[in-house]
Amino acid sequence: MGKEPHHRQLLYTAHVRMFDITVPAGASTLDHSHDRDVVTVALGPTTLRTRQPGEDWSAPRSYVPGSVNVTRYTGGVAVHRMENIGKTPYRVFAVENLREKAWSMPQLIKAAGTTLLQQDRSFAVYEVRLGPSTTRTSHVHQMPTVVILISGSVEVQGGGGESVFRMEANGRWFPSQWDQPHTLTVVGESPAHLVEVEAR
Ligand SMILES: [Zn+2]
């Protein structure tokens, strides 16, 4: 995935790798391979189809902002290309869990405004929605997590006396490490929507 020109690497740690994948309307990627379980998080609305070498295109799939898709690849290799058949740029973040096996089972988070969207052997994916009725959430991730803003604005307070910062634009993100707490507080009148990808 790292050498495909539409994939831009954003993060590479011992445990997690993350890419920004942007494909203009009507364009397609080159064939590229996956060998680690991956979560994709749609930043905008998108319609795409995929094709494996020597096969036909898949049926088109549409995503709304914040849609997530968990795919298992670890233990094998899959090659495909994708084509953006929508009218807007295709933009997703793809988060890989680099572990080959022995995934952990962190405790599921129960916190205000925070909902488990999907879980699998290598990920738990949460959605956070904040607004007038729930303005703030505070929780601890036992495992490395990428927090992605889909819409709205939030103020972020990390653990260990780190300074407060704001995320105000679609696609802003930050990584949090093992056993790291954070508090997210909605800013302004619009509701805030985030997706958190926790690598197991
Ligand atoms: Zn979180």
Tell me what you see in this structure.
The protein has two domains: 7-97, Jelly Rolls, CATH 2.60.120.10; 114-199, Sandwich (Jelly Rolls). Helices cover 0% and strands 52% of the residues. It is built from no helices and 18 strands. The protein has strands at 7-12, 16-23, 32-34, 38-42, 46-51, 61-63, 68-71, 78-84, 90-97, 114-120, 123-130, 136-141, 145-151, 154-158, 165-167, 173-176, 180-186, 192-199. The strands form four sheets. The chain has a five-stranded antiparallel beta sheet, with no helix packed on it. Strands 10-11-18-13-16 form a five-stranded antiparallel beta sheet, with no helix packed on it. The two termini are 21 Å apart. The mean pLDDT is 94. The structure holds zinc ion. Zinc ion is lined by residues 139, 141, 145, 147, 182, 196.
